[in-house]
Automatic annotation (TrEMBL):
Superkingdom of the organism of origin: Bacteria
Protein name: DUF3299 domain-containing protein
Pfam family, one: DUF3299
């Protein structure tokens, strides 16, 4: 009888709603990505992009360093999509930025405020003004694109329109 009760209990757990289970990711904010004691430069202090200067990286402020606290962890980070690679089905690689217009209308933020995201499942976004939550494996990764130097990478397991906790 005990064995049947145990199997029934395990089966019942599979039927529980996901919100009843423990959170499967760490919620991060953009301020979490900056080394302790450093400040984040507000986008309005950066000014508008000089579109005559084709090298956007020349307008990117230097990064004060990266944090490794969440390397290899599953995290959720909100932000805005700046597409890098896409198919007809949607975007498959993008820079996740903390505010609308970063890397497009204002100079890129420091590398510790940019996350390079890749996804196996293309995400069909509605444009640069759509906020999203991205959940996936997080880590430091020094990389350069034509838009900016990037300090972090995230392999997305789930991308969805932003909604607050």
């Amino acid at each position: 009888m005990k064995r049947r009760s145990l199997l029934a209990g395990i089966g019942a757990c599979a039927l529980l709603p996901r919100h009843g289970l423990a959170k499967e990711y760490i919620d991060l904010n953009w301020s979490d990505l900056v080394p302790e004691g450093d400040t984040i430069m507000p986008p309005m202090l950066q000014g508008l992009i000089d579109h005559d200067d084709t090298n956007l990286m020349s307008q990117q402020p230097p990064s004060s360093g990266l944090r490794t606290d969440w390397n290899g962890q599953i995290v959720r980070l909100p932000g805005f999509i700046v597409p890098i690679d896409y198919t007809g089905a949607g975007v498959t690689a993008f820079i996740l930025v903390p505010f609308v217009g970063a890397c497009v209308h204002v100079p890129p933020p420091p590398a510790n405020q940019l996350v390079f995201v890749t996804t196996a499942e293309p995400y069909e976004n509605t444009g640069l003004f759509e906020a999203v939550n991205v959940v996936g494996m997080f880590g430091t990764a020094s990389m350069t694109t034509q838009l900016a130097e990037i300090g972090y990478a995230l392999s997305a397991e789930n991308i969805e329109p932003f909604r607050a906790n």
